[in-house]
Specification:
Layout (H helix, E strand, L loop, with lengths): L6 H25 L13 H21 L8 H30 L10 H7 L15 H27 L3 H22 L6 H6 L6 H9 L1 H4 L6 H27 L9 H21 L15 H10 L1 H17 L1 E3 L3 E4 L10 E4 L4 H41 L1
Antiparallel strand pairs: 1-2, 2-3
Length: 396
Amino acid sequence: MLKKLNIFNFLRGIAALLVIMFHIVWITNKIHPEVPMNAFFTMPCWTGVWIFFIISGYLIGKGFVSLRYKTNKVRDFIRFYIQRTIRILPLYFFIIIIDLFFVNTQAYFNLENEILFRSFTLTLKQGHLTSMTGNLWFICTLSQLYLIAPFVDLLVLKPLRKLKYCKIYTTMLMLALIIFEYIMRSVNLGHHEWSGYIYGNVIFNLDVFFCGFLFNIFMEKNTFNKIKEIMMPVSLLLFFSFLLINIQHMQKHWMLDIGAEDIKIYAVIATIFTTLLLIYSFDYKKTDNINKLAWWNPFRWVEYLGIISMGFFIAHCQTIFNLNKSININKDFIYTNNFFGFLTYPLKISITSEAAILYIIAVLTICFSIIWGMIIHFMLEKPLNKFRYSLIDRSK
């Protein structure tokens, strides 16, 4: 069964769930302070974002190793940037335009139009939030990392692959990068805007992205064998154990800001290690890509979520925000009749306990986010990817 697991879609699905479940509690509590927090939903969202960065770095590096992307000539750099632009910017501006014209227009014209300027120059930071752009800083940071990636291939990845002991040198380089970033985060840990200054800053995400990028050196000529058969369940066990420990810390220290700040720093290293171990165990050269998990398998459900994760991820903040804003809460029921600012429909749900409110909001949020993810995937991502791959074929 595990041999059929698509590790990238699986990890994307897990990462998306970690982010959305944290935001359900955080945004709901901000809008409805009377709703009690539930420890079940206090997931470490930053771990999910780091997983996204690691996967992105690994797959981009894989593209360079397989020569899908090249860095021999200037036009190779241009082709790479065009490919990345087609992949992410239409999704990004789709959300921006909906927010700008239908949901949160005024926010873009406050603070001397700073949000409007940053939105259209891809310089949004984690602290620059409107109801819909809560997660778009991730795409801005990812775009900045993509700008660097071809140069890292040309100056680092290519030379390393030519060395006799390339895996040893790569290990040393990755460890040096992790240690450097650990020191950088430790020095800046007391900064009063941790999320915007450290968590979302491209400088502090170099290790998660480029450790994934450089890890491709360990994956060359990587095939399935008996060792991997043992490593598959072991790597999954380590990964979920790490998540459970992380969740436990979140339940004891909400936001990990008081008395547990340093856990955020150690969590980065553990995220890198456990995610790369999963990739090493599961990403081998498959001769048959048709084999998939059965539709009823829970892992397969997570994979489905991973397939639509980009739309799900970038749309969920506005889903939670507008769902909460449109909900009226009293002792007997919750009622909503307005969603996304421009869609109107009645929805009335009877409840008997205040604690149930969070569960209802969570279920509705996940359902609507999945709908948004499917719309974005089938209307934007699939056609754009088809067009992008056709460009790759023409350039060969």
